[in-house]
């Protein structure tokens, strides 16, 4: 018989134990690593991709400088998606559809006593619910690109068979939830079965008796009481008043993030927005109120003389009311007055944390207890740009609140007015000329491809004859497109100058914001309105890829 080795079993058992311990140690170490990653990992912004992707999208460059351009900057409503943070306050307002009108007709028929004839319709009664139902059905059939939200009770027009009707609506191509108003005059006759029918409908804003009265405020250029001064008009649907902090106690209880002016001032609008939203995003991350300077410097590339224009008001370009609803902000002047007032009346000064470099990250300031965190940007460009705060590791934590920044409602009212005058039934072409057409090195064919004869030849194959054709362009000569008038109903921005002239709502409302001083309808405003009207065209023709083979950013960049 074979004899067994008594030492074999202990050696094997020890080897198995050793292997088991090693495997268990590896497993524990792996779990520890996974736990650390899970805790520290910050996912990209679920609403708008990652910060680097956004940088490329909005600046078209990946370094710390921005290209100078004269295009309109993208804002929150341009980026609205189904998963956007903004929730429409009109969600509870059901649009007026065919089903809604049918229910109204049933209710009216049950309430109306049937007469033997049409005697009760010999004179149009504008308050008759059947009048409003007739208008609702007419509008729904005519304006396919409009969502109708509500109507006011019709009022008498200028004649016995006329009624003026006002309603609020939203354009389907606008991604914000903002509401606009139209009021039109309708002429009625008696149709079949003793019903009303519309025999004539007036154009945009023709129903002047249904127009809501505006709030008028007496003001002068100097701010004094001048009895000869014309009253200024304020749209009561726009609330862009500056919020107040209230009492000293409220000021002291607050927590603030204050950015002093940096190298971003007088840069292009894309640069301004990228930096502003960085500061606002940091304030949200730190759960603080952002101290906001309403003074904007418009870069010279938007102005004919090429000079920067300081002293512009943020509210000329952006929707301040929407910003107040979405973010905690305080106006800089109001904030500094309250701060100085507190320090003068109290021995204990307000605790202030001064930060002199963008390299101190928001994460390092997260637990700071100071009432005011004051970021100062006194260095050289580009180190003194606000958006540098949101670079590097901070990009994982700071999410720019694009949803908070919309274009000015006053500018969008002009866009709506222009579109409404064409009954939202128009095509649009974007004709880029200017400096690009003169630069034959980067755009060798652009000038010839956008000449009047070339435009006629190309657009005849894209647009139906005698359609309303809106031309969004930077071409300075008004008569440049006259040859197109033999084929289309041509509309240019300058055809609507009265919408920002000295008798317009826009003129009066912006003058009120500007301490009674008239506000220029500047180059950026023109581009913003031009672009938004272009977006609402049923057929849209672009310069690059449609009219010319040149690349948008120059030769060999397609």
TrEMBL record:
Keywords: Membrane, Transmembrane, Transmembrane helix. The chain crosses the membrane at residues 21-41. It comes from the Eukaryota. InterPro entries: DUF7074, DUF7075. Residues 250-543 form the DUF7075 domain. Residues 122-206 form the DUF7074 domain. The keyword Transmembrane helix applies. GO terms for cellular component: Golgi apparatus. This is O-fucosyltransferase family protein. It comes from Populus alba x Populus x berolinensis. The lineage of its organism: Eukaryota, Viridiplantae, Streptophyta, Embryophyta, Tracheophyta.
């Amino acid at each position: 018989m074979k004899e067994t080795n008594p030492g074999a079993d202990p050696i094997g058992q020890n080897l198995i134990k050793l292997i088991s311990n090693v495997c268990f140690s590896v497993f524990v170490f792996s779990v520890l690593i996974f736990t650390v990653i899970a805790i520290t990992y910050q996912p990209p912004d679920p609403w708008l991709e990652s910060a680097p992707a956004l940088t490329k999208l909005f600046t078209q460059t990946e370094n710390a400088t921005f290209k100078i351009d004269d295009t309109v900057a993208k804002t929150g409503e341009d980026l609205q998606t189904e998963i956007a943070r903004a929730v429409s306050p009109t969600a509870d307002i059901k649009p007026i559809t065919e089903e809604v009108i049918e229910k109204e007709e049933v209710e009216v028929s049950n309430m109306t006593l049937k007469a033997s004839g049409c005697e009760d319709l010999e004179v149009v009664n504008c308050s008759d619910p059947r009048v409003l139902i007739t208008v609702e059905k007419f509008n729904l059939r005519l304006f396919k690109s409009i969502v109708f939200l509500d109507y006011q009770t019709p009022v008498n027009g200028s004649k016995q068979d006329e009624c003026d009707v006002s309603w609020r609506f939203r354009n389907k191509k606008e991604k914000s939830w903002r509401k606009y108003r139209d009021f039109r005059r309708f002429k009625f006759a008696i149709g079949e079965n003793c019903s009303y029918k519309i025999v004539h409908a007036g154009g945009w804003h023709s129903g002047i008796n249904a127009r809501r009265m505006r709030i008028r405020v007496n003001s002068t250029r100097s701010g004094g009481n001048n009895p000869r001064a014309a009253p200024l008009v304020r749209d009561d649907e726009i609330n862009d008043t500056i919020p107040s902090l209230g009492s000293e106690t409220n000021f002291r209880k607050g927590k603030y993030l204050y950015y002093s002016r940096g190298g971003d001032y007088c840069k292009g609008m894309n640069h301004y927005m990228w930096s502003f939203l960085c500061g606002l995003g940091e304030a949200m991350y730190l759960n603080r109120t952002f101290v906001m300077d309403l003074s904007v410097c418009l870069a010279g590339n938007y102005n004919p003389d090429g000079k920067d224009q300081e002293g512009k008001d943020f509210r000329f370009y952006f929707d301040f009311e929407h910003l107040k609803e979405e973010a905690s902000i305080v106006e800089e002047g109001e904030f500094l007055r309250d701060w100085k007032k507190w320090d003068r009346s109290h021995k204990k000064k307000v605790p202030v944390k001064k930060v002199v470099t963008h390299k101190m990250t928001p994460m390092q300031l997260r637990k700071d207890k100071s009432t005011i965190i004051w970021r100062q940007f006194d260095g050289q460009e580009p180190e003194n740009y606000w958006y540098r705060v949101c670079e590097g590791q901070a990009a994982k934590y700071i999410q720019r609140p694009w949803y908070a920044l919309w274009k000015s409602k006053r500018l969008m009212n002009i866009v709506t007015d222009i579109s409404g005058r064409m009954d939202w039934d128009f095509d649009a072409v974007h004709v880029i000329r200017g400096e690009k057409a003169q630069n034959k090195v980067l755009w060798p064919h652009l000038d010839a491809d956008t000449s009047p004869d070339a435009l006629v030849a190309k657009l005849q194959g894209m647009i139906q004859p005698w359609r309303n054709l809106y031309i969004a362009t930077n071409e300075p000569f008004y008569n440049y497109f006259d040859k197109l008038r033999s084929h289309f109903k041509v509309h240019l921005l300058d055809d609507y100058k009265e919408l920002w002239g000295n008798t317009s709502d826009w003129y009066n409302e912006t003058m009120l914001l500007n301490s009674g001083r008239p506000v220029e309808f500047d180059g950026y405003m023109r581009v913003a309105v031009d672009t938004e009207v272009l977006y609402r065209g049923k057929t849209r023709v672009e310069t690059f890829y449609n009219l010319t083979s040149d690349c948008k950013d120059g030769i060999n960049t397609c």
